[in-house]
Amino acid sequence: MSNHHNQQDQRNGILDSTFNQTLRTVQGLLKGRSMPGKILLSPRSDPVDGLNTKDSSPSYRRSFSHNDAGTSDHTYGADEEEVQSPTIIANLNRLSISHVERSSKEFCKSTIGARSTDSARVMKFTKVLSGTTVILDKLRELAWSGVPDDMRPTVWRLLLGYAPPNSDRREGVLRRKRLEYLECISQYYDIPDTDRSDDEINMRRQIVVDCPRTVPDVPFFQQQQVQKSLERILYAWAIRHPASGYVQGINDLVTPFLVVFLSEYLEGSIDNWSMSDLSSDQINNVEADCYWCLSKLLDGMQDHYTFAQPGIQRLVFKLKELVRRIDEPVSRHVEDQSLEFLQFAFRWFNCLLIREIPFHLITRLWDTYLAEGDALPDFLVYIFASFLLTWSDNLRKLDFQELVIFLQHLPTQNWTHQELEMVLSRAFMWHSMFNNSPSHLAS
């Protein structure tokens, strides 16, 4: 019997050791240092069972650098040493969610002391941005953990591919794209309704109805000029993207861009901002930057907003499968209560959590979104699983009606950066464990 206990203790020791080894490889994640290493967006050839359907868009493989002092000159690629060995993956199969939870909390203790405003991180951003040509891989590494407020407009334009990495070309490209936006407004928006089709009239009417509903708990968005700018941006985007046209929810997606690009002209808290303090040229520039960045963002998820929104439906299915593998009791309880993931998670994917967490945390969340690049749709599944399982214990106690009400009004109103970093750290660790581990995900 004692021999059996010794063997069990040995196995537990190996399990702890291999898990900690995996954690050490991502230890830079929330220290705001080398986090999470280079992100290589190369198409994967091995589909993950259960989380990828035949018609899904290409998924991506990440590789990680191990230089905790900054960016690395060497990245482990697909043919080199991966973050996890098969042994680690096999052992991770037996780890509980509580083990991951404890490790996430350890990450977050260091995170709050390494916010994106730390002078060391500011210096790293300054160094990357001051080059004649910005190395986007290095910028993504830094941006994933949060971008300093005053650098965010520049960083977001670069991450989205709106502004070119070459600094000599940047001003000219932005000037040309801003003029192109104004020409679009002149051609399609500043015209009488008699020159519009019935579909265009109905679309504009829907946009006008939705603008006042956008982030209703932030008074700034109720200003008439803010709503006029939202209307122009959304209408221009819809006209130029006829495959989807305007879909409710896209109005929310403009708001982080609007706040970030306005911050180049307005100081202090958003509570004290007034669009009337800006010149028409400044407003036009902000609108144009929002339009082009929205376009770049949605180019990577077009089927999220086409008829029947198949891209979102596919990601909701992946979310359901991932939650089943991470927290089977919650998955089983939700199923027993006959609650469909589509009933609550559709809005999460449609609005990218803008309606679920306090608005002052949104730009930090979007730093990570934009740093993910083309891999964002896939990584959203992990962020949203982490978000949902924040309330794992609560969810198992609720019946159908209580679940619906709880998930529609999640108690995030008092969230700070600490809770958000916890969600992101769990998502990152689960992604590193599950995403490239088909055998681990197999039913």
UniProtKB/TrEMBL annotation:
Residues 146-373 form the Rab-GAP TBC domain. The keyword Hydrolase does not apply. Pfam families: RabGAP-TBC (PF00566). It comes from the Eukaryota. The keyword Iron-sulfur does not apply. Residues 53-74 have a biased composition (Polar residues). Keywords: GTPase activation. Residues 36-79 are annotated as: Disordered. InterPro entries: Rab-GAP-TBC_dom, Rab-GAP_TBC_sf. One of its GO terms (molecular function) is GTPase activator activity. PANTHER family: LD44506P, TBC1 DOMAIN FAMILY MEMBER GTPASE-ACTIVATING PROTEIN. This is Rab-GAP TBC domain-containing protein. It comes from Arachis hypogaea.
